[in-house]
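Q: Could you write out the predicted structure for this multi-component system? I'm mainly interested in how the pieces pack against one another.
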Amino acid sequence: MSSTPPSDMKSSKFLHSFWQVNRSLMRYVHKTASENDLSIPQYSALMTIAPHKEMTQKELGEILQMPKSTLSQAIDGLVQADWLHRQPVQDNRREMQLMLTEKGAVLFKKVKLQKGSFHQTIDSAIDTLSEKQFEDLLSTLHHIAEFLENETIIKENSQND
Amino acid sequence: MSSTPPSDMKSSKFLHSFWQVNRSLMRYVHKTASENDLSIPQYSALMTIAPHKEMTQKELGEILQMPKSTLSQAIDGLVQADWLHRQPVQDNRREMQLMLTEKGAVLFKKVKLQKGSFHQTIDSAIDTLSEKQFEDLLSTLHHIAEFLENETIIKENSQND
DNA sequence: ATTGGATAGTTCATTTACGAACAGTCCTTG
DNA sequence: CAAGGACTGTTCGTAAATGAACTATCCAAT
């Protein structure tokens, strides 16, 4: 009894749970973002920049790992709406220095405290896990991520992202 | 020493790993799908129907949990391309009975064995986990999924999905 | 037998993120 | 110091998934 189940069975169970979590997360991000008139990339960008005082667009891209075009458009929208200040870096005019405007800083604080916001929700979800559960989850996810990144797909030094 | 880290720190670590896995998975699904001239919803539908001999569109929707419109369009494409046979259910003409055509069954087998396909890759990723790691991962994901589903978002008995 | 509501699926317009090509800046090397 | 190549970011056309409104069918209640 209790022989190891076939791996395609395990995979599909994993995928099912994984997509389910993903769907919920997406729903929440989308909700919180659109309540504040932001697209998802815009929301991600804003929340990532905020904890640092300033940041280049390049650094932001390395963290968020989204296509350059997507990021560029997101940033542009944020600048237009005056959440974000953007200016070429002093001694390398190719790069863009990004920092929140005062308005942007206010928005960030508001969102962070907003009842039922993405951040609040995900924080409380994580809080229901034991320390050990959390560590295990993180390390397993990390393990899978690494495995997948190293697999076949030739990271054809893509000009995007 | 070793006091519990603040939960928003933990959340962002979790999210980072989670999105990273998600990005990889998406890349693989997209690659495998488009190599076979399928959209992602089409790929998902095909792979879900295949193990059952037949299935109603409603049942499929309950499993995949994607918006009705997305599913409907995916199915329609599969029928057009003759991967899938579709006909109204005998004694409830609102529902649609779906089953693979012979051509579709061949495609399914081909994809399942395809070197570097999504299925192959995710299977081998899962195989690198110990039995315990896998069980823990699954149960934690499941736990988070349930938590998120039960949270605030009023599932305003959406007419979609 | 009729009507109102629920259920299953489709249509269509819109949004969104994306890839590919491009433009500007910087750095090396002859 | 000119030219080629690498790097950062932008523009633009396209494809994909979605929500809202709709059609068709079924069922329950009067």
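A: Regarding packing and overall arrangement: The mean pLDDT of chain A is 93.
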